[in-house]
Write a structure and sequence with these properties.
CATH topology of the largest domain: SH3 type barrels
Number of helices: 3
Number of domains: 2
Low-confidence stretches: 121-165
CATH superfamily of the largest domain: SspB-like
Distance between the termini: 17 Å
Shape: globular
Mean pLDDT: 75
CATH architecture of the largest domain: Roll
Largest sheet: 4 strands, antiparallel
CATH class of the largest domain: Mainly Beta
Structural class: alpha+beta
Radius of gyration: 18 Å
Number of strands: 7
Length: about 160
């Protein structure tokens, strides 16, 4: 197998570029508000490192939560690593901090646009490494199970699976 330093990591480049689309879309909304019928559905992992949401929301949405940015939101901001927004839950404003790496789905239904991201664990961080996951045919039964080093991996689809055939 090739040493990680000897190959171009296109998977990481694409992941960063697609997360950049989310960042840029949020930046445009920060500057000019949501144009026309645009609205965002953002699904993120509530247990991802750096996610800051009230405990009652984390309890109600263990693992994953979807927020909608449409009519009532404020204090929207984004930088290279995270987005922040204040939303109302049961008429109570709550400030949320969501690292971009925690986002698993970004969608704008008004224009039928959606991005789904590879799940990242806190250990993988922004440099998600699909090579740690079982992708060989002999590991086919391991999908959603554990990698060779015993870590739980979840279900991941990698283009490498299709290239090997």
């Amino acid at each position: 197998m090739t040493d990680q330093d000897d190959i171009l990591r296109y998977d990481r480049m694409v992941e960063r570029a697609l997360r950049g689309v989310v960042r840029e879309a949020v930046e445009e909304v920060m500057d000019g508000g949501l144009p026309g019928d645009h609205h965002f559905y953002i699904t993120f992992m509530t247990d991802y490192p750096g996610v800051k949401i009230p405990d009652y929301l984390r309890d109600r949405y263990p693992g994953e939560m979807t927020i909608v940015l449409q009519y009532q939101f404020s204090n929207l901001s984004v930088n290279d690593t995270q987005m922040e927004v204040t939303l109302s839950f049961n008429n109570k404003p709550e400030h949320l901090i969501v690292p971009l790496g925690a986002i698993s789905i970004f969608a704008d239904p008004s224009v039928n646009f959606a991005l789904q991201f590879q799940p990242m664990t806190g250990e993988d961080g922004p440099d998600f490494d699909p090579d740690k996951l079982p992708l060989d045919e002999e590991d086919e039964g391991e999908k959603g199970g554990k990698s060779g080093n015993g870590e739980k991996t979840g279900e991941v689809v990698s283009l490498d699976q299709f290239r090997k055939k």
